[in-house]
Amino acid sequence: MSVDGEQERPWWQTPFRTFQTNLREIDADLDVDATLEYIVDFGANAWLLSTGGIISNYPSDLEFQTRNPALVGRASHDLIGDAVAAAHDQGVRLLCRMDFSKIATPIADLHPDWLFVAPDGQRQVYQGLVSVCPNGWYYQHGTLAVLDEIIDRYPVDGFFFNWFSFNETDYSRTYHGVCHCGSCSSAYQAWGGRDLPTGPNDPDDPGGENYGQWRIFTAEVLSRLNGRVHDHIKSRRPDAALLQGHGRHSDVIFHEANNAVGRDLWPIATQEAVSVARTAHPELPVFVNSVAFIDMLYRLASEQPDHFAQYLVQAIARTGFPSTYVMGTPAVIPYSALHKAAEITRFHRDHAEIYDGLRPAAPVALIRPDPLRTDAASLSSARSEFEGLFLASRRIHVPVDIVGEESLNTVLGRTDNPYRVIVLGDLGRLDRDLAGALDEFVAQGGRLLLTGSTGLTETSSTLVSSGIAAVQSQRTGVEELRNSYILSGLESDRINDGTPLLPILGGFYQLTPAPGALSGAPFVSAAPFGPPEKCYGNQVTDIPGVIRNNHRNGAVTTLAWTAGRAYRETELTAIADHIGRELLVLLSGESPVRADAPADVDLTLATAAGRTVVHVLNLTGARRRGFEAPLPLRDVVVHLFGLPAGTPVTAVISGITITADGSDDTAVRLPELELFEVLVWGE
User: Fold this and answer.
1) At the topology level of CATH, where does 364-587 sit?
2) What is the pLDDT of residue 4?
3) How far from 417 is each of 280, 362, 370, 401, 578, CA to CA, in Å?
4) CATH number for the domain running over 10-99+251-353
């Protein structure tokens, strides 16, 4: 279908909201009409329903599928048939949740070549189900047969594959190692020319020999498999979407926002995931499936309502689409978080025109290190640097997009790249293509903020634009850096000049500035740190902690130390102020929005065809393990720069509208900021 000569968009390209009922076997008799009434009232217009794989909630005729025995309790013996008909009557999309990670023991006994095999030769069995391997026949071919059976029978609107992985860890979080089935052994030998690694001793310790290479191999296997599944669905049902975590071969990128007992909070985890996906694939929607329970180990215990609300608000603020995920149905398990989820979902429904077509448009891109880095130590350091740089940058309240290191080259190659400044933290040597693309970005007027090891080799920088003539030495680790500092003033030359001394944690690099580069913020050498009577002798050196360099039409600033990591580990605001000052110098007043607000307020910026949307997020409720209710904030002021006179700006939640008077700074004073606010202007 077309409108005025333009192709009609697929349904998943317009804002949608989902409710997932993750069914137990005993839930197959659910009342579809009552469930849909709840879903529609909740604000959702898509239902993600357990369909096939481990258990088939329809009468499958395939010998390698297990029909749900509880289907006998339905008059039709067919939950999916009943659900899709009723959903479409209500204007609700029906999405199929598939899980091909495990099969029943009798099927496994007939097909041992389909199975995951641990390094000790054992299969992985859990609750009578046996894990299979993505390299085996079941995943590679059986899945397509199941999809064909469903597509032939039902007009479903999409598919999602759960646990699309190599099953190294089971539901009890027991680590089983790398798969050693025959298919994996031969495929890995052909791919890498070596035998399979055993894997680390623990999934939280990625230091096993060659384990990083295994992770790259499995990511490629899953990407290819995802592509085959996507192409197969499109050949059979072009109007059905594939929702999956692999953006390269999906219609919608899937992310699950969840919690876990004992996990320390990273307060912007959902923002990070959505931003990385949207900046890598701005043409694809991101679907954020938010888990209503506290942990997989405690599926009946509700998540803290305020924590759950952050999943959904952070999702929509980063231009993702919200989804709520429950076990069973709301009629059988009472999750107290659902009332807040419904409020946010209805807000998204009632203001769908705001969210239609939005794309990230922050002036600053912060680069998240590639999680598939094979060097575990460098990944850990770069991850800490990234987190500290984000927390420091938000204190100056400039919108920041998060871009994956793995997609940076692609982003730099786009003609609509919106970024004035790119921040790269402790990423080490850059490959030639990426270094060249960054140099060209600077030559065309872009600016870089580099920290730690970014771009450095043992003797030089891979970036021509950096203004670094040579790398003289590096100091890393506690012993080499203990009691050494950066004197934060760019022109400081003595300890008692009133500028803060900033402790160095992680790494420091002695760099020689190129001719014409400006340098300062000197390194202060170590001295004894105890006993107190011997704590003297620190010397201000001529070794710079900051190098600023103009290159053609752009500029590069290098912090010769891991300032982000130091802030992440100490939370000293003097370090954050140092980072923020250098970032503001590079921005040169070119951010279209800033705010006067407490440190725990985030700004996001997105645009669509003449419309600009700013979300103001209140994260003051963040605690060590989760979120409590945010502290209501009064007199937060958002400054919008360069709006033409007469432009109306609406604060959607507060219900106020102001009109720009043509001055450079249009100040929007929010009477009260609770969970979030949305500012909108333009068509």
Assistant:
1) Rossmann fold (3.40.50)
2) 40
3) 11, 10, 20, 12, 27
4) 3.20.20.80
